[in-house]
UniProtKB/TrEMBL annotation, chains A, B:
GO terms for molecular function: DNA-binding transcription factor activity; transcription cis-regulatory region binding. Transmembrane segments: none annotated. Keywords: DNA-binding, Repressor, Transcription, Transcription regulation. It comes from Lactiplantibacillus mudanjiangensis. It holds the Pfam family Peripla_BP_1. This is Sucrose operon repressor [Lactobacillus plantarum JDM1]. Residues 3-57 form the HTH lacI-type domain.
Length: 326, 326
């Protein structure tokens, strides 16, 4: 049986009026009360009736856009594109840099439940997946699994991993390492890693995995990369993002390793910033224009019709951009 | 005499009810009607009574943040910092990338007039200054003059221009050019240009100005830089932003000019991205942490008290970050 407003009130230990005020964001409510109510809504999988919602005509024309940090060039370009596309459709973007802050990400989900935004595009990964298990809510995910009911848009990370490794191999590298983030469940870099491994297997070469966590500072990353390059005689490195590739090239220079003669390097992402200002870097380009258009279009479909039939996963092709580093 | 709601209605050729609905963003209104009403409000310098506003208790806890494009690393880092500071104060950010779109910038000012946001932080420059001549509205500007009633936060661009030119000169350069944006009224690069000129005058050297418009594509910028470097025998270039400095270094490489031996280069901005991934670049660092804290603190003061006494201009110190390019 579908849970009712009264069930939420009972579980949260508040009155039905309070639940209604939380849902409609009406009047003053303490954060503690709001948290209790949202917690109960989550637990019961309660959702405000969509029909009632649209009958109220309470469209805010606001979209929550949650990414780890727009000061990272990849997210900066992606969010910039998303904002422009949504603006053209008469929506405005509420920006959330959620890096290292699950409570922040949670608060945006609560805004969605409270009808303060009409939908969410999420590319963050602090929250446990269970928090996204509200169905029917208009959420589209970039590049990671959040829940069965949240469609994922991503680029073909496996193919990207294969193409990158192939580029290194065809340029002559034989001992090829991968520098990548932590092996989180649902993380996009897993696919890149799998593509790397698959290509090496076909080529009968040994994989060499090194974790460089995304959230580390650049200085710590460089120290680690230096240790790795000194301790091994790699002649090729696939970095699962372009910024790590730039650090690797800087470290190689410090170690007087010539790129690409002694060490070949391939990055990943291929933002406009990298292609324009680092044309030397060989990288895998994610189709940022297509990704942002698809994210926006799917979200608007789901806002217009909460029951509309979307695929669970949309995977867009990537391509190799040849520089001189491999 | 202060203009009244009826005066706005009369000038706009609509009913007083319509004006009220525009101001309170209530019910369906065509864009044409809204434009007419806002136009009349602007012309008459009409503003909704602030007291009435706060009595309505209509705080949205939303702040409009308008910069040309967050895919530019400087604006990406600045907006990321602003968003984090505002979130900590229980405000959320509505993001506007206004590049090349005065209508977009205008629409955010209308949101402010219509009480849909509580305040605006603006670093864009599409609109004529007259559009910002509403007084009393909580707006803080980054780095450019908008109106007498809008405080400006900026870094010391003149001092930055002097420091950059001095660094080139002390590194041995004698024929020092500046690559900078167009000479817009109120643009921050004017100060950098003035500092450059002032230093050269003291050193009894001749200035060489070259305009590389900010909005040009990187490819066009590179073509232009190549022509300039081929046609002149500069041994030093001060670029008024770091990305142009990176392009200049790339062009020098193509022309087989050694940096810094044949050509010394100094940039401007010194974002975390540049300092972490291009530690070689000598640049002028703007204090982004202090800038964002001041922007947010001044805005919150003005939201709390529309009449509060703020300085017209807050100028923060810059510093030289020494790499190896000069």
């Amino acid at each position: 049986m579908k849970p009712k407003l009264n069930d939420v009130a009972k579980l949260a230990g508040v009155s039905a009026t309070t639940v209604s005020r939380v849902i409609n964001n009406h009047g003053y409510l303490s954060q503690k009360t709001k948290d209790k109510v949202f917690e109960a809504m989550r637990e019961l999988h309660y959702q405000p009736n969509n029909m009632a919602r649209s009958l109220q005509g309470k469209k805010t024309r606001l979209i929550g856009v949650i990414f780890s940090d727009i000061s990272h060039p990849f997210f900066g370009e992606l969010v910039s594109r998303i904002e422009k596309l949504l603006f053209a459709q008469n929506y405005k973007v509420i920006l959330c840099n959620s890096a290292d802050d699950p409570q922040k990400e949670r608060e945006y989900l609560q805004m969605l439940m409270a009808n303060q935004v009409d939908g969410i595009i999420a590319g963050a990964h602090n929250l446990g997946i269970e928090e996204y298990q509200q169905y029917g809510l208009p959420i589209i995910s970039f590049d990671r699994y959040l829940s069965d009911n949240v469609p994922i848009v991503s680029s073909d990370n496996q193919q990207g991993g294969r193409l990158a490794t192939q580029a290194l191999h065809q340029a002559g590298a034989q001992k090829i390492a991968i520098f990548t983030g932590k092996n989180h469940a649902g993380s996009p870099t897993n696919g890149r890693r799998e593509g790397y491994e698959a290509y090496l297997k076909t080529a009968q070469l040994t994989p060499h995995f090194h974790e460089i966590p995304f959230e580390w500072s650049p200085a710590l990353k460089m120290m680690t990369i230096k240790k790795i390059l000194v301790a091994n005689d790699y002649d090729g490195v696939f970095c699962s993002d372009d910024l790590t590739a730039l650090l690797t090239i800087n470290v190689a220079k410090q170690l007087q390793l010539s790129v690409p003669d002694d060490l070949k390097v391939v990055g990943y992402d291929g933002t406009a910033l990298i292609r324009n200002y680092h044309p030397d870097l060989t990288t895998i380009e994610q189709p940022l224009a297509d990704i942002s258009e698809l994210l926006v279009s799917l979200l608007l479909q789901r806002i217009a019709d909460a029951e509309c039939d979307l695929e669970p996963m949309y995977q867009l092709p990537v391509k190799l951009v040849k520089g001189i580093t491999a």
